[in-house]
């Protein structure tokens, strides 16, 4: 199963998004509208993807991504390409049980007429021989970013989205993507649904894939609604405890988590023993740049619960709303921090 990443010790990656250049979209904001149009926009997106790739390479990131330069938002850009969803008909709904957002409406059966990201993935594949990771929204997070006026059942709609995601994932795999990641921040909120059908729909989305698969579960971008919510969670964040047992038994290969500066007790990692873990060692909710030693400390703590060959240093979440210099410096810290721990491991007996 494990392919290109097997020779790299502590392969680094980002959770997904990186800031966009200011000539492409308004900086430091989510859902930022494009500044270009038509052909120029397509060209601009690809140029931004190349810049983002170069920044990752400069920082020594091992598993690279498109930095989500070709999408406006990690959920809605995918949904925009589907039939059955009306973007003109908007409703304000409470998403992640946390904040109100104006979202599109499901008005009929949902389907995917053609691929959404495959051309972009092919373009990224042409630019590098490094392992590449591509992020898609997970079924539960998709239904939580919509108003459903057709299925009237979160579960039914999630199964439909899972089928669509599986079609897209198979084409991404064929385009040469090494790891397909599903973003499921909703897994940290709707615990009963996660256990009743959330993990099952996610497994439907990865059915038949031969490439590696990951699920990213986090406490969200560093926006105010999220930082306010975090203040209510107390001194120990045990949300992961709810989904981990089921995920441990699932076919998902990698679990991507928020760790650094979070109040997530590291020993919760015991619950996903045997899985590869993308450990968030960069906080995206602050402009303070981690030192390489901060990153190394988080990784050392994780190594108490995760075998060295299963530990993947990562960022806590997407960096889209950060400024570019801050994001760049944080990436550098991630690469340098992973290097410190790599050297320690190679000089110790932990790798035998
Ligand atoms: Zn995230």
Automatic annotation (TrEMBL):
Keyword Repeat: no
Gene3D superfamilies named in the record: 3.20.20.210
Keywords of the record: Metal-binding, Zinc
InterPro entries (UniProt xref): Met_Synth_C/arc, Met_Synthase_cat, UROD/MetE-like_sf
Name the UniProt record assigns to this protein: Methionine synthase (B12-independent)
GO BP term, pick one: methionine biosynthetic process
Alphabetical list of SUPFAM superfamilies matching this protein: UROD/MetE-like (SSF51726)
Organism expressing this protein natively: Marinomonas aquiplantarum
Domain spans labelled Cobalamin-independent methionine synthase MetE C-terminal/archaeal: 10-333
NCBIfam families: PRK09121.1
GO molecular function, one term: 5-methyltetrahydropteroyltriglutamate-homocysteine S-methyltransferase activity
Coiled-coil portions: none
Cofactor dependence: Zn(2+)
């Amino acid at each position: 199963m494990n392919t290109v990443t097997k020779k790299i010790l502590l392969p680094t990656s980002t959770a997904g998004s990186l800031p966009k250049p200011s000539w492409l979209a308004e900086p430091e904001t989510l859902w930022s509208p494009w500044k270009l149009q038509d052909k120029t926009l397509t060209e601009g997106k690809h140029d931004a993807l190349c810049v983002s790739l170069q920044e990752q390479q400069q920082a020594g990131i091992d598993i690279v991504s498109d930095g989500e330069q070709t999408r406006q938002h990690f959920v809605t850009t995918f949904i925009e390409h589907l039939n059955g969803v009306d973007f003109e008909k908007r409703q304000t709904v409470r998403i992640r049980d946390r904040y109100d957002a104006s979202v599109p409406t499901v008005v009929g059966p949902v389907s995917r007429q053609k691929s959404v990201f495959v051309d972009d993935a092919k373009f990224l594949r042409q630019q590098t021989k490094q392992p590449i990771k591509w992020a898609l929204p997970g079924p539960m997070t998709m239904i939580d970013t919509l108003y459903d006026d057709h299925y009237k059942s979160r579960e039914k709609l999630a199964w439909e989205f899972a089928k669509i995601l599986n079609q897209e994932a198979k084409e991404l795999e064929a385009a040469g993507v090494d790891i397909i990641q599903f973003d499921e921040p909703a897994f940290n909120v709707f615990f009963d649904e996660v256990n009743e059908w959330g993990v099952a729909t996610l497994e439907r989305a990865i059915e038949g894939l031969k490439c590696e698969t990951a699920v990213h579960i986090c406490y969200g971008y560093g926006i105010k609604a999220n930082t306010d919510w975090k203040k209510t969670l107390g001194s120990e964040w045990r949300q992961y405890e709810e989904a981990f047992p089921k995920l441990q038994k699932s076919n998902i290969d990698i679990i991507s988590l928020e760790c650094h500066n979070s109040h997530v007790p590291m020993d919760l990692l015991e619950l996903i023993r045997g899985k590869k873990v993308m450990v968030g060692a960069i906080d995206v909710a602050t402009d303070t740049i981690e030192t390489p030693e901060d990153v190394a400390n988080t990784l050392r703590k994780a190594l108490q619960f995760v075998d060295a060959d299963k530990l993947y240093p990562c960022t806590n979440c997407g960096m889209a709303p950060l400024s570019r210099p801050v994001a760049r410096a944080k990436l550098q810290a991630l690469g340098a921090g992973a290097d410190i721990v790599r050297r320690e491991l190679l000089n110790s007996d932990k790798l035998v």
